[in-house]
Amino acid sequence: MTTVRQRRVGRGTEAAEDQPSEETNVKPDGKIPSDPAGGKLWNILSITVGGIVAISLGLLTSVYVATLHENDLWFSNIKEVEREISFRTECGLYYSYYKQMIQAASIQQGLHGLVYDNKTESVRTINILERMNVYQEVFLSILYRILPIQQYLEPVYFYIYTLFGLQAVYVIALYVTSWLLSGTWLSGLLAACWYITNRVDTTRVEFTIPLRENWALPFFAVQIAAITYLLRTHLQPVQERLTLMAVFIATFLFSLTWQFNQFMMLIQALALFILDCLDMLPTAKVTWLYIIQISGLLLVCVLQFFNSMILGSLLISFNVSVLIARTIQKNLKKGGLLNRLGKLILHVLLVLCLTLLINKFIKKILNLESDEHIFKFLKAKFGFGATRDFDANLYLCEEAFGLLPLNTFSRLSSTLLFYVYGFVLFLLTVAAVIVAFRNLSGSNQVQLKEKMEEYTVTLKPDAAYSLVHTILFGCLALSTMRMKYLWTSHMCVFASFGLCSAEVWKLLLKCLHLYTSQRTQVIRYSIPIIILLYISFKFWPGIMDELSELREFYDPDTVELMNWIKSNTPNTAVFAGSMQLLAGVKLCTGRTLTNHPHYEDKNLRERTKQIYQIYAKRSPGDVYGILRSFGTDYVILEDSICYERRHSRGCRLRDLLDVANGHIMDGLGENDPDLKPSLYPRFCEEIKKNLPSYTTHFTRVFQNKTFHVYKLAKHK
């Protein structure tokens, strides 16, 4: 085990070679075999059993979520249009490109259709491979076309089974990470069981299958497992190179499959930066990880036809700034406590200034504004001034982008996960503070080594990384509910590792003056087994009931709408409406859209705000002019938006539009003093009265209980 006192050198395998390893050849009963051959045989047996358990749990999780999906929708029995409608909002948009590639006359024609796409945004030709992270759909469609499985497996099943299969990879990666941290596969077993029993808070794959995070998070988990192994001591050069390759591949795949990759990896880079500054990680390995992040992101940038949002990411600016600052400040890790603190403060300020300067310079050169809505949202969310910006408020009013609800913690506590997590987090945070202080104060001098050996608190590099990782992603989850899945899955790993770790129990028992080696081994195995028995006894019946509960997809109004569009409108027709509904229109009917849910483009955001004037207080002539400017032939109005009650006053879509347009909101309540009454009634309400000023421009051609479709007149 690496002690912090012994890591003053900066090479990739800096730890002293003569350090004793407390993890080798340890049996579950805590005894170390005296026979080397017996110990080797025991290790092989343990790894074999642990590997079988990991694969079995991964496959069981995959089957579990697939069964839940089938039972919830009766997916195997419903019509194709109903299956496609079940891919809600942006999920339907992403799946439509898989369907488009499958239906193309050839792979080359399918790729050409994506690179020169004129159906996703009317009157514009865009490169889908540049704008969106859909290479996984491209790869999967090509694989489906070349494999001899068309007669046995429908394209939609090939798609969803791949996603459910990735859940197996996800669980195995979490299992392996916990095993590597604790030294026992029992920890991995507990992590996987917690992941499954806390499914509501650890994944949503069964009802949002094509969502980008469901593709990306398994690769992120693999990357974390590889980093955990990389940070171990005594790695041979070949092992280190292979592990770095695994980290790079996982980082690349994670970056390729999710547009928010840069923000997640920025948090990861911050974790590495903090630990490197506190001398708790080998500097050379941290440098390699910075380089891997940059190179992985740049490779994705090339594949996405030099997507400017990637080039202008804070991650690239930050990592480059850290490497430059480290070159400037070569003696950062020398000197006493006050000296080092002063250097660290200067180092942090230098990195921060360089990051902002480099990022500003890149965005200025590239004229980049694609991600400005994210920073507007963050500014408003954390109280740096109120905003009337439509895009920022659209995010602020969504529950998924709000604070993490308190009932999340009660659910996590019911499986004992949150209690154990809090216990381990407290112990390791205290240990990390002590270790960091010793490093900065320079008390790891050689002459004190023997004197302090018995009492020194230590923290392995992999455990230190896991600690800071969970703290930073915990902060992200607390501030933004949608990001909780990055935290809760790692929470399972972190809690199970701490509960099964000899180092954690040794630290606690030493503080209580109760430490013996035998007692530590008994506790680290008995308590996890007791918790596993508790989880099995309490949650197994519930899981069985859940698997036996059968429901069926039912959305007749949307099905009726999609069937009408396919039967009664030309293939070249252009549809306007809410971006969530239009994603389904594209998937189910193949018609051209005016806007869609992939919001990472400034022009699209401005276009969406204009299209949404159908729910604002605007004149029929204004709305008609806006819609025709985007080539609209039909507009779909939804009663659920026009008369929305899901959000409170001030967060309804019509309220956001009114405020952005400078109009007072409907209903009782306060309005800002500078808001004024509109000269016109609300368009989506007034158009249903069939007044001459509206029928001149719009003719109703379809309606049911939910939707109203109007055809636009083509005035000369």
TrEMBL record:
Keywords: Glycosyltransferase, Membrane, Transferase, Transmembrane, Transmembrane helix
Source species, domain of life: Eukaryota
Cellular component terms per the entry's GO annotation: nuclear inner membrane
Annotated spans, Disordered: 1-34
Entry keyword annotation includes Transmembrane helix: yes
Primary localisation category: membrane
Biased composition (Basic residues): 1-10
UniProt subcellular location: Membrane
Any Pfam family matching the protein: Dpy19
TM regions (residue ranges): 41-66, 179-197, 217-235, 242-258, 264-281, 312-329, 341-362, 416-441, 462-481, 487-509, 521-540
Keyword Protease appears in the UniProt entry: no
GO molecular function: mannosyltransferase activity
Membrane topology: Multi-pass membrane protein
PANTHER family registered for this protein in UniProt: C-MANNOSYLTRANSFERASE DPY19L3-RELATED, DPY-19-LIKE 1, LIKE (H. SAPIENS)
Family from the record: Belongs to the dpy-19 family.
Name assigned to this protein: D19L3 mannosyltransferase
